[in-house]
Amino acid sequence: MIVSTQPITDRSALSAEHAEVIKATLPLVGGKINEITPVFYNKMFAAHPELIANTFNRGNQKQGDQQKALAASIATFATMLVTPDAPDPVQLLSRIGHKHVSLGITADQYDIVHEHLFAAIVEVLGAETVTAPVAEAWDAVYWIMANVLIGFENNLYASNDLEPGDVFREVTVTAKKQLSATVWEYTLAGELVAPEPGQYTSIGVVLDDGARQLRQYSLLGGSDTEYRIAVEDNGEVSGFLRDRVSVGDKIEATIAAGDLVLNKDTNPVVLISQGIGSTPMVGMLAGMNPERDVVVLHADQAESTYAQVEEVQGLVEKLPKAAFEIFYRDNDQWLEVAGRIPSGASVYLCGGVEFLKNVREQIEALDEQPRDVNFELFAPNDWLIS
Length: 386
Prior knowledge:
The chain has three domains: 11-159, Globin-like, CATH 1.10.490; 168-254, Beta Barrel (Elongation Factor Tu (Ef-tu), domain 3); 269-384, Nucleotide-binding domain of ferredoxin-NADP reductase (FNR) module (Rossmann fold). Helices cover 41% and strands 20% of the residues. It contains eleven helices and eleven strands. The chain starts with 15 loop residues before the first helix and ends in a 10-residue tail after the last strand. Residues 379-386 have low confidence and may be disordered.
């Protein structure tokens, strides 16, 4: 699922009266948002236990990642609406929209979120603080953001002629192989949709306690009948795939989504990854125009932990204008971008949070900035987007 347009926010949708209330209460709500979101999730899961069992990833909930993502997105969106020079968080909204469609989220679920989120706001801040005008203003912010996302998500579904939420497909594991001590590769066959280079799929498995848990994995490549994923050994879903899923077994996969997609221009491309973050880069290299200048930079702990080194090397060798460098921390090698990003390049990043922060800081320090910087994270850490 992919569209050429971005989520469109109408700043004027928030009335001047509501804007003044938001400006006055944003420091209070923003300062308490990390207290509000755990209360919200507890209320929502108590009322709808099927959501934590079948839709939300329990590991991310335990770590607080999804709670932080929600908190950051609401605060960022409210700030944008009432601050004239604040940038439109279009990247944040696009990432949320893609993640939602990869989980089959539909418009009616926004009503559920609204009900329990506002109950949590009142519980944490108190009814004396959340007066009728305050509640009305924040209600307006919520539905402006929700309607932007609902519209964008419906467009994503429509891009593959799908009804909203109809993204899950039964697939058969046709191949499974171990790439390193912690990484396995799976080939999945079924009635799918060919992905764009760099996209991901959500994999669903039913665990021993009956919960259907979902986890998103970047695609090494795929077609309308086959997806190939790399799975690092961490979390409930990954562990279940490793220990309980074999060739011939059937699991769930969603139609591919994700906005870290290789553009179809002719300008230079720089692919920068760390660890299992090399997975979408494999997909991009496989779909690369051989006439493009390509720089591939990868950081890993050691040669033995770089699970896809052979496949990346083979793809690079097929591209006449490609350069490939590896940095192993065990050899005291640290990835540096200075002098390695061609003028006018499109940069694609994928890796852990600290790695991503470091590379972004390095890029921002360059005298000449690349044409654009695009990135993907391993968890719902949308608060990193500025």
